[in-house]
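Suppose you are handed a protein chain with no further information: no name, no annotation, nothing but its sequence. What can you learn? This example shows the usual starting point.
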Amino acid sequence: MLSSQWVRIYLSVSLSLCVGVAKARDYLDTEITNFMKTMDVIPDILDEGPQDFLNITYHGNVQVDGGNELKPMQVRDEPAVTWPASADSYYTLLMVDPDMPNAIRPFQREFLHWMVLNIPSNLLSLGDVRVGYLGATPMNGSGSHRYVFLLYKQVEYTKFKFKKLAKHNIPGRLEFHTKQFAKKYNLRNPVAGNLFISSWSSDVPQLIKAIS
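A reasonable first move is to predict its three-dimensional structure. Written in structure tokens, the prediction is:
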């Protein structure tokens, strides 16, 4: 039978190892992963974060820069999105709002703003736009919304069974689940991501009218 002294030594070593592993994991987390934890993207829509920031630029050289606040009118049109890619790989790009209808009671989480599938390398224009781009149109009084971009590297060219939605189609976008979608199509964890924050402005009614 182990003496009480040896038991104490064993427990002390075990605890030290657990703490060391936890610290090593935190150290290895990327900047974007730590940022997404801070913004509650993890765990709200992801379990594990991406490795890199996704480069996103809207008209007028407006950059998505790690949670910066952008006005709905600034993000009205589809942005340019770039990333370092493997020439022989395919990618999936998602843009979602997890704060629907608001961050306090997000019972309609997530709203799917954009989905492009089977993107060859980083040639976004050659991908399958399964869900047309729809900019930020948060409702009056709903507070700040997070608009999250996620890029997944596919295992191979994939046949996705997801209904095609044009830019002006709203039905079919609500209650999308990024985690479930990624699991279903074996997308694993995102390789890159980014997000911006936006709130209602007086331009929103005009933007909604334009897409209705």
